[in-house]
Every structure is written in structure tokens, then in C-alpha cells.
User: What shape does this take?
Amino acid sequence: MNSIRDEAHLEDLLSEPTPQVIETLAAIGGDLAILGVGGKMGPTLARMARRAFDQAGKKNRVFGIARFSQPGLEERLRGWGIETVRCDLLDPQALSRLPDASHLVSMTGMKFGASGQASLTWAMNCLVPTHICRRYPESTMVAFSTGNVYGLTPVHLGGSREDDELRPFGEYSLSALGRERMYEHGSQTQRMPMVLLRLNYAVEMRYGVLVDLAQQVWRGEEIDVAMGHLNAIWQGDANAMALSALGQTSLPSCVLNLAGPELLSVRRLALDLGRLLDKPVSLRGQEGPEAFLSNAQESHRRFGYPRVPVSRMLQWVADWTRRGMPLLGKPTKFQVRDGKF
Assistant: This one.
């Protein structure tokens, strides 16, 4: 398949459960709550969970919890069989009224705008995890983090591993490490089995590093290759690995990198997109010796390789771009090297 027809087709693909997701969710008892469901990945992850429960013949409820500032999202989730609950997760009283759930996927956090709203960034990334752990002390949890906590890593090493030293810099990366520590503290003190997922970078047609590059190529903009390398993973595969991780929670909590298997050259990606879009490519700068890179071999060992290779993602993104299809309008800022998001 070389083309994704429209947003409905895209969301079907992003939410298609793998056999491992179906097996994992069939084996868990109790309901599932997805906190921060209103973000870029949350809706299709929630839908994948609902589809997996249904295909397994299970009646477990799926709760989608968020402020729901995006018009129409709540109705769309309900149409997929997800029970939505409005909640400001900074308000502990609001959290106390949330429905019980035996299993959680926490997707909360703040990245973009962190440089101008430092206090809110720290509150979202560190205070909210504390509230969540206190509200759900008897639940198991998969919590999203970011590969940014490693800091820049030498490209020749092939990406940071889970046991590497953490060297975050900038308000966002530091607060993201704080988020991990708060989840770890909740896991330890309340005996909550947990997995922390360090994601680096999810891609779909409306958002992601490949979309950013395709838009620059399409508009004829100069592409800076100083951040010369990256990881990318199809968001549907990231969704599937995150839900499969519900079967991997542990005490003490463990960390898994969530990323594609390849170390990708930004220069090569831009040239490939130029060829697919039939556009000239203008590059500037030289690749730096370091980048935000993750080695996700352990996740691939546990969950298998991603189903969608980079070559197919490039074809899909180029076709989507050429047809002028909808975008989320949220650039990843993957080229930022000073930690200011």
C-alpha cells in the first residue's frame, strides 16, 4: 500500500492492534484508564485498546481522561467506544473523582512552550505524576517519558541504552527526568508495578519528524543538518508497544526505549523526500557529532520489530504532502540542540 486515503483510513491503521496487544489485554483483569488521552498519540492508542479488548471478547472499559480542549475529540472517542472523562490533572480534587481503573497508561506532560512557561512545565511534568500515583496506588502503570533525558549522545555509539548515564539539559529535559523520578517514587512507595517508556520519535502523516522534513522540502526551505541523525517509529507501532508493555510492568519499575531500529541520516531523509516529491533539496551546515538518539533493542526483543519500515513511512508522507492533506500544525522541533523547546 503506497497511499493512505484520508484521516479515517489513517486512524484505522494507527489503531490496528497487533496479536501481542490482543493477547496482553486479554490477560489483564479490570479497566484501563488513559491519562492525557487528548495528545497526539492518545486517541489512536485508546482506540487500539478498545479494538483489542473487543477482538479478545473482553468487556473491560477504556477511559479516556483529558481536559478536551480540541473540538470534536471527545465525541470521536465516544464513537469508538471509549468513555471520556474531563479532568484537569493539576487539580487533586478532580483526580479524586476519576473512575477506578486497574491499569493506567499515562501520557501526560508538557514540552512545547516549556522555555516560556517553566513553572507550568515543571508542574505538569512533576506534580501531575505525584497526583496520579496517589490517586491510583493499587494500579499498574505504563508511563511515557522521552529520550531527551539522555541528552545528546555521540552518533558513533548508535544511541543511548536504558542503563546509560542521564545528562538532560534545558527546562524541558530536566523536568522530564523529574517526571520519571516522581513516577519511580510512586512506584516504590506505593508498590505500583510500572514501566517507563522513553519515546524517540513517533511519526504519522499529520505530525512527526518526517512530516517536518517533507514540509520543508515541499516549500523549498533550506534544511539545517546540524542535528544530523534521528530515530523514527510509526505511531501505530509505538501504540502497540506501549499497550503490550502493560504485560511487562514490574517492581521495581523498569525503563524501556521506544524507537525505531535505524539510526537515520537527516541529509539522506531529506534527499529521499526530494526524490519522492520531485523537488530540489537545499541543505545547510554539517552534521554534528552528537544527536538525541536511542537504542531500542530491548523493546524490539520484547515486542518485535516495528511493522512499518522507514521506506514505507517516507512514501506515505510524501504522498500525503503532495495531496495537501491535513496536518496537526505542531512541529517537532527535532533540530533544537540547546534544549529550549
